[in-house]
Write a structure and sequence with these properties.
Elements lengths: L1 H48 L19 H14 L8 E5 L3 H11 L3 E5 L1 H4 L2 H4 L7 E6 L8 H11 E12 L5 H14 L3 E9 L2 E8 L17 H6 L31 E5 L17 E6 L3 H6 L5 E5 L16 H5 L9 H8 L5 E7 L2 H13 L7 E5 L14 H10 L4 E4 L3
Parallel strand pairs: 1-2, 1-3, 3-4, 7-8, 7-10, 8-9, 10-11, 11-12
Antiparallel strand pairs: 4-6, 5-6
């Protein structure tokens, strides 16, 4: 009996040790996964954090008392305007302490409307519908470390920010060094769902964390914060009422040159992103344009290279279903040449189309082209596109999370002031 009892005790002890070891391995695995995610976020933000000592208002031996309250608000806005991250003609929201002084400072700086919300209100205003979604151009918060659920605070700030709007978190940190800024910015970075961090810097015992809300859906084009001086939108505004209604099959198209005089423009530029040539009914002859065929398919080169005034631009990123790049384990990734650089369409368009040109852009509504369209808005380059043609087929295009249907796409673009037509030509 004693031997059997000893044997049973040994078996139970071994089983218990195995269970404990398995639990320890699970905890270690979870720690490694969490650390990897955080490290990835830190690496993403490292180029921004390296500029932490370049805050214009950061001074040696600056005391905290010298950068409090309205002085800090002025300094934050000065930092953002100097870096051309913020415009002063919009709606602003202050969250946290010193609400009255912050709102007053923002109004004195030039914001048209300023609002206030304490940390208790910000945690519940979605249900009270006190502030609408996509409403504010700028949100300033000092309450990240003072609320019980920081994730809810960040989520609510992102909700009320317009796409393209700027959010600022002012958080405490211990000592003025890169490590402290990383530790201060990382929690905010991990909680952001629809924004990217633009800038991080330090002042006194505070860290300034600046982020910009991204476009998440085509219906938000009209809410996006375009530059105040947006040439194409301002020029086309009087003629938007004449544009043809949206229909599945469009016979009569109200082309923009029927309403504006393009003879005074420096150059006529037509950019064809692999969607076909300009239709025969267009008021201006195709040969009057400087034509650029932007495509990932090099076979299109032979079809256009012999035509006068046509330039082929190779854009490998326009392959449908591949707009987010290859997996590091995929065959395409392994076969890709090491020296191949990513083609930057926005940069190319800025260099190609100048102020005073008349620019027509034709594209489709597939995933990769929509990605380009979102980049046009987020960079402000859409302001230099006068007229657009978008090919969109129901049930084929606009099936991803950013674009539910073709009608939403065109309504979003037109409500944003873009003179866009639905192209039915393949």
């Amino acid at each position: 009996m004693d031997f059997k009892a000893l044997k049973l005790q040994m078996i139970r002890g071994a089983l218990a040790r195995r269970i404990i070891l398995a639990c320890l391995c699970f905890v270690l695995a979870m720690f490694i996964v969490s650390f990897t995610r955080i490290a990835g976020k830190i690496r993403t933000n490292e180029p921004v954090l390296m500029n932490f000592d370049q805050c214009w208002f950061n001074r040696p031996r600056m005391k905290v008392s010298n950068v409090c309250h309205e002085n800090l608000t002025f300094s934050v806005v000065k930092e953002l305007t100097d870096r051309q991250m913020l415009r002063l003609d919009g709606r602003a929201l202050c969250v946290g302490d010193n609400l009255y002084s912050d709102a007053l400072s923002l109004r004195e700086l030039g914001f048209m409307e300023t609002f206030r919300a304490n940390q208790n209100t910000i945690m519940r205003f979605e249900h009270d519908v006190e502030f609408e979604t996509n409403y504010f151009d700028f949100v300033l918060s000092r309450t990240f470390g003072k609320v019980p659920i920081p994730a809810r605070l960040v989520l609510e700030i992102e909700r009320v920010l317009r796409p393209g709007g700027i959010g600022v978190m002012i958080v405490d940190f211990d000592t003025f060094n890169i490590g402290s800024l990383v530790r201060s910015a990382t929690p905010v970075s991990l909680l952001l769902r629809s924004s990217n961090i633009l800038h991080v810097c330090g002042i006194g015992s505070f860290a300034l964390i600046v982020f910009k809300k991204n476009l998440s859906n085509v219906v938000y084009f009209e809410n996006f914060r375009l530059p105040k001086e947006c040439p194409s939108v301002l020029r086309n505004k009087p003629f938007m009422q004449h544009i043809e209604p949206l229909m599945e099959y469009q016979d009569l198209v109200s082309y923009l040159p029927n309403f504006v005089n393009v003879s005074s423009r420096n150059k006529l530029i037509y950019i064809n992103m692999g969607t076909g040539e300009m239709g025969p009914s267009y008021p201006i002859h195709p040969q009057a344009f400087n034509v650029y065929v932007v495509d990932h398919n090099v076979s299109a080169l032979s079809a256009h290279v012999k035509k006068p005034g046509v330039t082929f631009v190779y854009h490998p990123g326009l392959v449908e279903g591949d707009n987010f790049g290859h997996s590091v384990n995929s065959a395409k990734y392994m076969e890709a040449p090491l020296h191949e650089k990513r083609f930057e369409f926005i940069k190319w368009l800025k260099e190609t189309a100048k102020d005073g040109d008349f620019v027509v852009l034709k594209m489709n509504a597939g995933e990769t082209h929509l990605k380009v369209l979102f980049e046009l808005f987020e960079s402000g380059v859409i302001c230099h596109v006068d007229e657009m043609f978008v090919h969109c087929s129901e049930g084929v295009d606009c099936r991803n999370s950013r674009c539910h249907d073709c009608l939403s796409l065109f309504k979003g673009l037109r409500n944003a002031g873009v003179f866009v037509h639905r192209s039915l030509q393949d």
